[in-house]
Hints:
This protein is of the alpha/beta class. It has one domain (14-294, 338-428): Metal-dependent hydrolases (TIM Barrel), CATH 3.20.20.140. It is 48% helix and 10% strand. The chain has helices spanning 14-19, 27-33, 35-50, 61-64, 77-80, 86-92, 110-133, 146-153, 172-181, 213-225, 236-245, 269-278, 298-311, 319-335, 343-357, 384-392, 397-430, and strands at 54-58, 96-102, 138-140, 156-163, 183-187, 228-230, 251-255, 281-284, 362-364. Strands 1, 2, 3, 4, 5 and 6 form a six-stranded parallel β-sheet that branches. Helix 10 (213-225) packs across helix 17 and helix 13 (298-311) packs antiparallel against helix 14. The termini are far apart. The model is unreliable at 1-33 (pLDDT under 50).
Amino acid sequence: MKFYLAFNFPLLAFAGLFSGCVTIAPPADRDAANPSDADLEARAAAIHERVITLDTHLDVPILMKRPTFDIRHRHDAHDHQSQVDLPRMIEGGLDGGFFSVYLGQGPRTLEGRMQAKDAAREIFDMIDRMVAESPDDFEIALTADDAARIAASGKRIVYMGIENGWVIGRDLDVLHEFYDRGARYMTLSHTRNNAICDSSTDPAGPEHGGISEFGKLVIKEMNRLGMMVDISHISDDAAMQAIKLSEAPVIASHSSAYAIYAHPRNLNDRLLRAVAKNGGVVQMNMFSAYLKDVETSPERREALRAWREKYGDILELSAEKQAEAVAARGKIEREFPPDLATLEDVLDHIDHVVKVAGIDHIGIGADFDGGGGVLGCYDVSEIGNITLGLLKRGYSEEDIEKIWSGNVLRVLRANEEVARRLQAEDVAAANGEKRA
């Protein structure tokens, strides 16, 4: 059962948050003018309440590092550059998702790897602390079956996923440690190559020709643990090789369609078909620069440069200075708003993935607080608009349930099954039994 407020369909676009000039007719006027739209909105709200809604890539731990941010309190995109918190999850009807243990690529040295492991441990600690401090609001999920049970309790579902395999260094024991801490997927790389594989966006180009020898061991061990292999961010060659190497279905936790917008981060049709054949799922990203051509005005570019020069790493500032930096950034967003894609752009990408890969292989990984968010769905309070948009495009309730959680939970469950089989085979081999 969900405990969220009634939806505001259609919701304010992000630009309106800054300009204050968006006017939406009151519900009674809209109903009178177009009752069929009102009926559709009511139906979408009912579907949204019935299905389990999961986002596979929530970068809110980035903000949770700030002493000025409390996920239990309501924030807004304007004042805090924040897209996820508990009140807005409730308001938007987001049952939960995968909280990202994210680290950008750093030095590939022994010291760099040690620092990355420790930093990742701190993020796991932070997520654990969030749940411990609000046990009536959040609960850690470890298995596919946990989702329905936690949603029925009215708590938010907290899965965890690692973004950037760099955090395990070259140590499979750390992979085990992070699985035991709750990680149920790992994005093999981020914006740069690492010891596991090539990135899709490293300026130096490919280093391994896809997956490295160490990376092959990582994928094998992830299968044995039951941790989903995430191909978002990695190169096309690495993604294709990962799909072939994995004995379990893979995910792309936050990716878009290359055929709709030709960005190297996006998945081409060949990869979409391979994911489908593998039984995996592509979780649709909502990062504007991966959805369409975006332009940054010279004024915005200069304002952001000056802001970065003045404040540097915001996490190194005092709480007072962090608040000042956040307010200054809000002023920039109001005066020079970004060029954003729209929810219709997102739906175009979803339609294409469905056309190529099928309805069983699409989900949602918006990348909120990591750069995601579009006009019409800029934060979690507006995610009901995704359901409404899907309904308007002819998707059924069964389709929508698959998109919001059914597909990714099926993939997680399949990974659990593969892990049980592989572990049983290991036990049999240790006992000298022949493999079937």
